[in-house]
Amino acid sequence: MHAVILAGGKGVRLRPYTTALPKPLVPIGDQHAILEIVLRQLSAAGFDRCTIAIGHLGEIIRAYVGDGSQWGMSVDYATEESPLGTMGPLLNLRDRLPETFLVMNGDILTDLDYADVLRSHRESGAPLTIATYARKVHIDFGVLTTDASKVVAFTEKPSMDYRVSMGVYGLSRSALDGYTAGLPLGFDELVLDLLRIQNPPHAYDFDGYWLDIGRPDDYDRANAEFTSRKSLLLKGA
């Protein structure tokens, strides 16, 4: 099985931690970088090949990971000369990828079964599978519904339930048909295009542990929780 890890971003929201290190290499706990945890998880799940899309400080990632043999994987790299969005790097890789593969951000902590995501994607027949997670958003204001300048409904500080993308996808290579290599392509654009042509993505709902390390508060939480969750995150790795 083949996975593509997206690790080319600048990690602006996580500064100052990412001033000298690419975000996937910021340390979690005392021993591990985020990217190391992800690679160990992928290897334990049966993935034997991985392509890492690198950009900002990418040579540090290349030096840290090497050929992946320390995790029992074969790792190669794709370099972004300019930002290409979430899905754009895949267009330059298209001929190097199998018909179905996993795509994921390189900065998440989760006990998601990556192999099962890819299995579910293959069985669904969909062009794209999105791993989803339930989030509850609390609105700190009274919410008004208006019609023709009249208030017709009111809810005091409601909570709204959503399913959000976890940053982990199963993808079929054919889903990239029609896009131009070298041009940016965002996840949002791909999803909207699939909906427009009535070829919708498949949802893989997950309710385990998931943390997207996008901000300093998230990073602090990851470090605070890692010791108690290490056996969960690195089981079998």
From TrEMBL:
Signal peptide: none annotated. It comes from the Bacteria. Residues 3-227 form the Nucleotidyl transferase domain. It holds the Pfam family NTP_transferase. InterPro entries: Mannose-1P_guanyltransferase, NTP_transferase_dom, Nucleotide-diphossugar_trans. Gene3D superfamilies: Spore Coat Polysaccharide Biosynthesis Protein SpsA, Chain A. This is Nucleotidyltransferase family protein. It comes from Streptomyces rameus.
